[in-house]
User: Fold this.
Amino acid sequence: MNKIKIFSGIQPSGNLTIGNYISILKQINKIQYDNICMLCIADLHIMNKYINPISVRKNILDLISILISSGIEYKNNIIFLQSDILENTQLYWILSNFIRFNELKRLNQFKEKINILNNSINLNLLNYPILMASDILLYRIDNIIVGKDQKQHIEIMNLIAKRFNSFYGYYFKIPNIIINENHYIMSLSNPNKKMSKSDNNDNNSIKILDDEYTIRKKIKKAVTDSNNSINYNKINQPGVYNLLNILSSISNVSINDLLIYFKNKSYNDLKNKLSDEIVNELKKIKDKYIYIRSNEYLLNKIIENGFNKAKKIAKNTLFDIKKLIGLNKLN
Assistant:
């Protein structure tokens, strides 16, 4: 039986948070042995502003080290650099013909960037969803693990694929989307905003490589409310709701069991328990990370092996597409 191909892309733009760990890495750990997981290090996606070349290489190796330290088996899966696969940018250019400027301009994330950056916005930010579509469609993916903040971008990908198929016959399969609402982790100080590794306020997120003191300090400061009653209520108690989701995901204990455990207990009890669980979980990763990160020969071999596997799929897909649209070699 053919294994299902599952795709997830991660930008090498800073230390991963427990939000990334819970929503992506833990999910891949559960399914990696029964499927083929393609983990794309999306290094082209970070090129929407000036970036330090030295920090790019460091961040790539840091990220791959965290993936391996988190339990992802590089021998069974495909870990590769987006920029290594030249077919990706060729397909990006082809797919650009199947989406309209106004459809990109009205996307929420793009409008938010315009409000923040004003006149300094560049074309890469507008075209981000097209490159993301190319990332996924190039590998004939079955399922995608993605955050719900990427939902509009996935809709653009589906629209592009359907338009291409309407012209050239059914070629691109529309992948299934894996979004788990309970694995969507929010900011510690603003539980109505996603936890992000690029957040300017470091207290909003817990990084996988944070030390124990920093972890406990951040959780202690995490926003709750004045009720001092532990309930799973997203609307009225979003801070507590978020902490319970984090604890449930880290400890693998159901929300119902946690509510029973914390009945008549305080927010301090919840925060202390959460701190203990996160510290214990991340210690195993950090101990392994020190060894993996020091072995750059291994990291480069992982990149090379991932390139060879991804390149084979990408080359075949682009050959098919160029033939469909009339760009194949004339013999």
Summary: The two ends are 37 Å apart (CA to CA).
